[in-house]
């Protein structure tokens, strides 16, 4: 139960942390950038062809050769010519909130009233200081007197100034004031002065003229851009004005009369004409998710209108569903990372990154659905880091255990090999083919009775230190001391191809080293030792064996029992080397050692006799 809780709590903690992080502007910006990349990957989408932009552009600036703002007479003429060219609606992304000449203002309002379906622009100026009221900048009085439709042109950006959302309405004293995009939709079919009263926000959607626009963040909708800046058809403002009644100062007396070309082509017939500035000097260009050249504000309105008219809305997952999916993926990854090594987990992590991005791209391009990217990636990476640290600490603990467990009785080279691959140690025991060596001091009980405790301990320490050095030098592992007896293993925990020969060589070197010690002790006037050694080879159960509280790395089985028996029967045979090996060991080393056949013996519990040999030396030196 505790293990299950641990598996659940870590993904849950990372989920909560990631959700909290992405409430901040920095991480929210990362999420925006990751989703922006989807826009850049997606090819421009086909347009309905119902929207055209009448641009106050560089060509217009040159043709009119006058400073902004243009005379209201020009705008009145533009409205008149546009409707003559067959447009069904004119939408201004140009504000007429300040009065100019009364006659010009009246002409503009009267022309729009005559043609009816013209949408004007206003603004809501938010208070800059606490306590100050927000102000509504509505169109001039002449336009309001005719009860002509108008909407706000407020555009809201994210913290990085990129325009990703379209403002549907702004509230002032609990009264909603709709933007020009909504005003256009509401008046597209029937021009009506009370159009705003037919709009309602229901179940997270704004209902307008049969459309249901998803509302995000109380009053906005995500913009599903159709293409980069300049993707919508643009016609110069001056081209619409340029008929036989208007002279273009910038044309130096040349009459191009571009209006008639537009009339002949019929390209404005039945279109919605959005009028706005694209010239840089008017500072109405904004960055969008598509990057590259900044998009004129009028084209941002055009993208929203195209999206709403074709109902190709961008949607997002509900935060709860998104969090649930992320939590489930984190749970699965936590399980995978727990069992895989970090280097393999990294490949899984990269695969998940790629898969999620591919899925996100597919959902975005086909279903117009945006799913979290950066938030998920950071959560996955955080889980991987925790897993990496966990694996590292576990490995560190494991290596610390190996070093403490083996450094006292295993050659340093073997300890280092084990540290490289701790998996070579089988926890709980496994069957391994090894050689086992037993040695024992003859008459040690009598020695200890004749000598004081300190002298006995000192002699035993000197002897055992020398024997362990010989064992480790021959790639053996000291299994244990049993009083004055020594048990050593060869071929574990790391496999050793010639473990039997290493054991035989070790036994002869132990006897040789003992002779050196005895010579030293005799010179010092001290008593000497004699030892007997037995060696056997075969299958044994090797590993960390013992109780749950106390365990040790050792070997058990018939192979070990026979090795101990061979050491003991040294007393029964008069051998020069005092080293006895079994026939099983002899079979493995017969081409490398010199032996004398001794006998066949039966081991306790076995009916079959075992041939034994005295190990006399090594061949070829």
Secondary structure topology:
Layout: H1 2-21, H2 25-41, E1 51-56, H3 58-64, H4 72-84, E2 89-95, H5 102-115, E3 118-125, E4 135-137, H6 141-145, E5 150-152, E6 165-167, E7 169-172, E8 175-178, H7 180-187, E9 200-202, E10 205-208, E11 211-214, E12 220-222, E13 234-236, H8 237-241, H9 258-265, E14 272-277, E15 285-286, E16 295-296, H10 297-310, E17 315-316, H11 319-339, H12 342-367, E18 369-370, H13 374-406, H14 412-420, E19 430-441, H15 444-450, H16 453-473, E20 476-482, E21 485-490, H17 499-523, E22 531-546, E23 551-556, H18 558-568, E24 579-582, H19 583-589, E25 593-601, E26 610-618
Parallel strand pairs: 1-13, 1-14, 2-3, 2-14, 3-5, 17-18, 22-24
Antiparallel strand pairs: 3-4, 6-12, 7-8, 9-10, 10-11, 15-16, 19-21, 19-22, 20-21, 22-23, 24-26, 25-26
Characterise this structure.
This protein has 19 helices and 26 strands. By secondary structure, it is α/β, with parallel strands linked by helices. It folds into 3 domains: 2-22 and 316-398; 46-311, no CATH class; 420-618, Nucleotide cyclase, GGDEF domain (Alpha-Beta Plaits, 2-Layer Sandwich). The strands form 7 sheets. Strands 19, 20, 21, 22, 23, 24, 25 and 26 form an 8-stranded mixed sheet that branches. A hairpin with a 2-residue loop joins strand 9 and strand 10 (205-208). The longest helix is centred in the middle third of the chain and has 33 residues, at 374-406. The protein is rod-shaped and about 135 Å long. The model has no long low-confidence stretch (mean pLDDT 89).
């Amino acid at each position: 139960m505790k293990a299950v809780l641990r598996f659940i709590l870590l993904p849950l903690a990372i989920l909560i942390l990631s959700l909290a992080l992405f409430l901040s502007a920095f991480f929210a910006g990362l999420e925006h950038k990751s989703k922006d990349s989807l826009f850049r990957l997606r090819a421009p989408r086909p347009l309905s062809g119902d929207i055209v932009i009448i641009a106050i552009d560089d060509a217009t600036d040159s043709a009119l050769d006058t400073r902004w703002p243009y005379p209201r007479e020009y705008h009145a003429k533009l409205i008149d010519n546009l409707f003559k060219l067959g447009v069904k609606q004119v939408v201004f992304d140009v504000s007429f909130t300040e009065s100019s000449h009364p006659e010009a203002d009246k002409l503009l309002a009267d022309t729009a009233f005559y043609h009816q379906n013209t949408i004007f622009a206003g603004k809501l100026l938010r208070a800059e200081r606490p306590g100050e009221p927000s102000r509504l900048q509505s169109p001039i009085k002449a336009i309001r007197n005719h009860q002509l439709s108008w909407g706000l042109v407020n555009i809201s950006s994210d913290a990085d100034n990129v325009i990703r959302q379209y403002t549907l309405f702004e509230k002032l004293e609990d009264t909603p004031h709709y933007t020009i995009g909504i005003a256009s939709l509401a008046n597209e079919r029937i021009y009506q002065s009370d159009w705003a009263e037919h709009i309602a926000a229901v179940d997270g959607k704004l209902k307008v003229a049969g459309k249901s626009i998803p509302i995000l963040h109380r009053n906005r909708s995500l913009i599903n851009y159709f293409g980069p800046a300049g993707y919508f058809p643009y016609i110069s403002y001056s081209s619409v004005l340029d008929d036989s009644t208007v002279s273009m100062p910038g044309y130096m007396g040349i009459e191009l009369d571009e209006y008639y070309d537009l009339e002949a082509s019929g390209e404005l017939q039945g279109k919605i004409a959005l009028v706005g500035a694209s010239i840089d000097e008017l500072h109405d260009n904004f960055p969008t998710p598509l990057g590259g050249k900044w998009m004129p504000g009028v084209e941002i309105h055009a993208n929203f209108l195209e999206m709403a008219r074709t109902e190709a809305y961008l949607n997002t997952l509900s935060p709860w569903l998104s969090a649930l999916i992320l939590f489930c993926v984190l749970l699965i990854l936590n399980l995978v990372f727990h069992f895989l090594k970090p280097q393999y987990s990294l490949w899984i992590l990269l695969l998940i990154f790629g898969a999620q991005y591919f899925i996100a791209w597919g959902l975005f391009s086909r279903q117009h659905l945006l799913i979290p990217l950066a938030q998920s990636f950071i959560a996955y990476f955080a889980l991987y880091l925790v897993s990496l640290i966990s694996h590292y600490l576990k490995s560190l603990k494991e290596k610390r255990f190996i070093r403490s467990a083996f450094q006292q009785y295993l050659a340093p080279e073997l300890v280092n090999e084990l540290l490289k691959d701790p998996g070579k140690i089988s926890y709980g025991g496994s069957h391994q083919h090894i050689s086992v060596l037993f040695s024992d001091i003859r008459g040690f009980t009598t020695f200890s009775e004749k000598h004081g405790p300190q002298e006995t301990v000192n002699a035993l320490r000197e002897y055992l230190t020398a024997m362990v050095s010989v064992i480790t030098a021959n790639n053996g592992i000291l299994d244990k001391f049993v009083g004055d007896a020594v048990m050593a293993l060869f071929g574990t925990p790391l496999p050793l191809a010639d473990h039997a020969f290493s054991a035989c060589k070790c036994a002869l070197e132990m006897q040789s080293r003992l002779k050196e010690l005895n010579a030293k002790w005799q010179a010092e006037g001290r008593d000497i030792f004699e030892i007997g050694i037995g060696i056997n080879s075969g299958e044994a159960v090797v590993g960390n064996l013992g109780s749950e509280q106390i365990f040790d790395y050792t070997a058990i089985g018939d192979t070990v029992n026979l090795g101990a028996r061979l050491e003991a029967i040294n007393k029964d045979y008069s051998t020069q080397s005092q080293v006895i090996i079994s026939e099983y060991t002899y079979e493995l080393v017969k081409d490398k050692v010199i032996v004398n056949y001794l006998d066949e013996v039966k081991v306790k519990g076995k009916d079959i006799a075992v041939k034994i040999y005295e190990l006399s030396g090594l061949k070829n030196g």
